[in-house]
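Reader question, answered in our methods column.
A reader sent in the components of a multi-part assembly and asked whether the whole thing could be modeled at once rather than chain by chain. We filled in our standard form and ran it. Here is what they sent:
COMPLEX SIZE: two components
ENTRIES:
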Amino acid sequence: MAKLAAHTKLNASTLVEVIVAMVILLTVFAMGMFIFSNLFKSTTSVRQLAIRKQLSRIEHDYIQGELSEDYVIIDSVGYAIQRDELADYPDCIKLKIYAEDLLTNKINDSLISIQLSNSISTNTEEVSYE
Amino acid sequence: MFSFYKQQENKLLTKEVLRNMLESATNWSKSNYFSYTDTLITDFLYAEDSLFIQKSAWGLYDVVTIRAKYKQDTLTQAFLLGMETLDTTVLYVADEDRNLSVSGETKIVGTAFIPKAGIKPTYVDGNFFKGKEEIVEGKITYSERNLPTIGEERLQQMFNIEPELSTGYLEQSKFSFFKETYYHYESQPIYLNATQFIGNIIIKSDSLINIAKDCQLEHIICIAPIVKIEAGFQGNIQAFAQDSILVEKDCRLTYPSSLVLFAPSEGHPSGIRIADNVHIAGTVLLYEKERSMVPHILELGKDIKLTGDVIAFGLLKYKYPLTVNGSTYCYRFVTQTQTTLYENYLIDVTLNRKALSPFFIKTPIWQQQDKKTSNSIAAWLN
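And here is the structure of the entire assembly that came back:
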């Protein structure tokens, strides 16, 4: 049987060093996973993008006079249109359009703008959202 | 890579919010109830946004600057505001108990306000009126003894500007509307030669401002008793004078230019003289507070083309042919052939309201009794 010489050195880590290194690596991986999952959650979903686009479209149609109703439902999202007069500016209105998710009953997004009253057309050739 | 995508997405969203804010602020500034003031609002449309709107008079128009801030980003916008042209008035001749006569190839398209004595075709130098039988292609209404009222405060404001005397030479050429207005004031005559001035600058002299052909001027204001524009000049200015304005031949004053003479009530007659072959797009205004015994004269040369408003609180003397695409207001027309002086004769004059573009924005100079007019953007300034 071969015997190790008394003065031979082996390059290796101790058990404690390995455990500490593992803990550090696991912590770094955990932080990375956490950041990664947060990024996924905070990304705008396709649905949100569609809602945002729909809000712009509804605003445009309302100004063109192609929308007479104050509430429209499209793809399980209810769009409520609110028109507020501005007290000191009788020729202006504040147009608020809210998108409400009908599944969760929460306000998903909103679009607020100021329009001139005389720029809102009254010729209602209604547009269909189906 | 993911965070980069997220960053770009946030930028696009912020830009969209800022654009919405700018558009809303622009609509708001167009309101007839929006006063000349600096307005700072936070939480204008969304939380953490802020908006700063400055509206003030800039010559015959209004200038509006908007700064919209959302989170760390800012967008800015500046423009000249004027009045949308909703009326169809092509001609307004005050009623001095004289009829209006037309001859030659005169054409009047639009609503005409004429004296109660009426309008009739006639012979001048052997030429009869060659136009349509109804003479005016549009509605005919009777005019009053005086021209419609002008908002005088805007003109007074221009002549009440009293800046400090300038000592240095003007080195800068571009002046932003987002900064303070730059004033250059001299008591001596000012000769602008081969200079470029664009934007937020007012040049004032106590005697004369002479603008040479090789100047590049855009959106600036000149104020002096006498303003002279040399032959061949091309540019866009607003000139305010109290004694005379002289525009030499072949000049092209682009939209939206203004030539305004605010004549003193009595004293020596003042006038605007525009030489041959000049094209002006904007407003030519000869105004006096009260009718003087010796009327002031707005003199137009041959082959002149005016697009916009021509307003003479006095005599409008012209050489034919003359073309005005827009509206003409005067107390009396005067023209001279080789042998005869004609008053209230329209000879080879084309007054065409329909030829004026529907996108042509006029100055809000007329005194509005109600606040139902629509304002619109005459020119972008940034």
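What stands out: Residues 82 and 376 of chain B are 6 Å apart (CA to CA). The first helix of chain B runs from residue 2 to 29.
Send us your own complexes using the same form.
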